[in-house]
Amino acid sequence: MREVVGLLSLLTPALALAQLPAIAVQRVALPNGLDVVVVEDHRLPVISVQLWSKAGSALAPATQPTLAALTERLLWSGARARPGERPLPPAIAVGGETSAWTTPDVVVFHDEVATDGLEVALRAQGERVRAAALNDKALVLAQLELRRLRSERLGDEPWSPALQQLFATSYQSHPYRWPTLGWQAGDSAVRLDDVRAFVRHLLLPNNATLVVVGDVTLAAVKAAAQRQLGPWKKGPLTDPAPAAEPEQTGMRRAVVRAEAESAALLCGVRVPGFADPDLPALRVATRILAQNQDSRLHRALVDDAKLAYLVQGDLVRLAQSGMLYIGVAVPSGVALSAAEPLLAAELTRLATAPVSATELARAIHQLEAEYVFSLERVGSLASRLGEATVLGGDPELINREVPALRAVDAAAVQRVARRYLAEDRRTLVQLLPTAAASAPTTAPAALRPTDADRWLREEFSDE
To answer: For 8-229, CATH number?
Structure first.
């Protein structure tokens, strides 16, 4: 069996990429329909246990967009030690870590424990899905927790207050348009019976994937999962995926007035779902456009024209339809109308002229390096496997990621730019501060690239 590459931090990026082996993914199904994905990684006595359910906010009713996040919070906080024991989450009680998050597509419960904690982590997962801790007091506490999280969900970037409006304007009918944490006014609309119905209809073993990565064997995981999650009863899956968003046929605009350190411009375009073959080229295009200080838009708007102090782009990958967006923050005294033409010109240039060999190679290498370093922790590898399996439909997508990136050429970048970055597909949101702007007048000393997977959790989750 081929092992997951080890000691990546001791290798040069070029050597690590050249020698990168395939990840040995093993997959079985329990009698109740639970999909189990295992990767054995015996470098350290650590295990990541993640339960992925296709029960994200996009599957909640339009009148209760917060239902998925509330359910996740209730079930996660309810998996506590038994009576008489310390009131700690099981993973914490054995010296591990625990977290949970909700996205538009999934609800995920994550426990990271030492090797001998496998049974404890799986027992906690079983306690969660049995939903034994649901009561009105717990619901009120979960609602208060969501309000706190919602108030903190602004993010680090200056344009964060306008991100919700970007999705709400770009998606007109698909439930990706509403925020995963919902709106505060909708919290009181959720009753305990609504949560129970959501659990009964969507948190089912035949609608879930258990991902285990670390110092384990497939046989041990299968046996323990059968003991702890085997009694979880499967049920009918009657709720179809939301209908696809209609094609956008004209530029859309919106204005947001909010407390912010500076005025900012957001430009977004919808892109295909997680497993679409155009995604690798779109990832490369995003990196070339706006994910580093050497990106085209940073050079054009920050270095040359001095019209912005920060430019950052991301490709948010979702199951059905993602978002490529670019944020531009301008210094005090600079009008957004001055930056917009340069932004549009760079989008057009990417679609009309091939990128250079140097730009292409640099972007691909950076994306490959991110992939390699994500294998260093069992938790991040488990998350990548969960995304590949649940959002993409195939855990082997993780092994095809680097070859797909390496296959991207200049013609592919130009083709996806021409198709997806066209003017009629763009949504522009202006963020106008309600108070006097206090923006920097020069670029920060170092701009870190924002990994799209991290952004997804920060903007959409209640972790």
So the answer is: 3.30.830.10
Q: Does position 19 have pLDDT exceeding 80, yes or no?
A: no
Q: What is the pTM of this model?
A: 0.87
Q: How far apart are CA 136 and CA 82, in angstroms?
A: 20
User: At the top level of CATH, which class does the domain 252-460 belong to?
Assistant: alpha beta
Q: Look at residue 143 and give its three-state secondary structure.
A: helix
The CATH 3.30.830.10 portion of the chain extends over 8-229, 252-460
- Of 136, 81, 76, 119, residue with least CA distance to 461: 76
pLDDT above 70 for 13? no
Q: How many Cβ atoms are within 10 Å of 123's Cβ, its own excluded?
A: 19
pLDDT at 64 over 70: yes
Contacts of 90 (CB under 8 A, 6+ apart): 79, 80, 81, 98, 111, 120, 121, 123, 124
329 vs 135, more confident:
329
Contact present, 175 and 104 (Cβ < 8 Å)? yes
Residue 130: count other Cβ atoms within 10 Å of its Cβ: 18
